[in-house]
Predict the structure of T/G mismatch-specific endonuclease.
Amino acid sequence: MIGVTGSHQEGWRRQGPPPDRAWRGKPGRSRAALTAEQDRAAGGRAVRYVDLGEGRYALASIALKVLPKTRRIRAYLRWSDEGRTPTKYVCEVCYPTRARNLAAAWAEARARGLVGERQLPSGSWASSSSVRASMRGNRGKDTVPEKALRSLLHGRGLRYRVSARPVPTLRRTADLVFTRARVAVFVDGCYWHGCPEHLRPATTNSAFWQDKIAANRVRDAETDRILAEEGWDVLRFWEHEDPEVAAERVADLVREKTMGATAFRLSH
């Protein structure tokens, strides 16, 4: 049995079944919350995969169950495979909280080789499947922060182009483009653009990733300079910034530029 000591086990035998907090999840939680719980306990989604053979993998989860007779908590690995839900016993656990029991069960599953990372597809240049998952998670378009900002601006009555080139002949794409006001907006991901607050340097192939992120930052600065020379105002926001604050800044600048352009035309 995996746990701190046998004291919890003996206590459960004398007093009754293990407390609900040791194994039962809170009712009514969303699927996203359950998935996040499993990811935390496993140490990341990238290590939650069962190898089904022939290049196939299934995302697994740990289920905790109490045996009525022994009053012990058992951990089972579960996954989906072509409509079936195979289950494999992992170990017994006796920590006082569900989070610690899940973490202990995942650690045992990894130690026994029941789960791990997916093999990288042929031709992938990521250093590991966990890095590849991070890369895939950092989307270049239609990210959650982008959508939040777009929704707030649309609600303020502003219209814009999405993922467009401010200068058609220049191969630089902005997340939002206000053509009439000549305002380009970028929502930068913390990983790819080197956020000073949230960037966590890669531990694998670190020199490669440092160079890549540094190059992205140089390109960002160059883009800002070129667009400014072409008469565009550039606003950049980190993905972690408050979208309400960002929307207000964008709206103020766009309206200011639009009113200025209108006044100029009327005066001429």
